[in-house]
Amino acid sequence: MIVLAFLRVRPAAPWRILGGALALLALATLAGCAPEPLQPPAHTGELVVVTRNSPTTYFLDADGQPAGFEHDLADAFARHQGWNARFVVADTLDQLMEILASGQAHIAAAGLTATDQRRQHMRFGPTYAQVKEWVVCRQGGPIPRGVEDLVGLRLEVVAGSSHAGHLEAHRKRVPDLAWIAMKTPGADELLERVDIGLADCAIADSDSLDVARNFHPNIRPAFVLESAQPQAWAIARGLDTRFARELVKFFDGIEQSGELRRLKERYFGHVKRLREMDVVGILERRLTLLRDLRPHFHAAQSETGIDWRLLAALAYQESQWDAHAVSPTGVRGLMMLTADTADRLGVRNRLDARESILGGARYLAMLKDKLPEEVPEPDRTWLALAAYNIGPGHLNDARNLARKLGKDANAWNDMKAVLPLIARAEYRDRLRYGYARGGEARALAENVRVYYDILLKYEPPYRETDWLAGLLDAAAETAGVTRATR
Question: Is 303 designated active site?
Answer without folding.
Answer: no
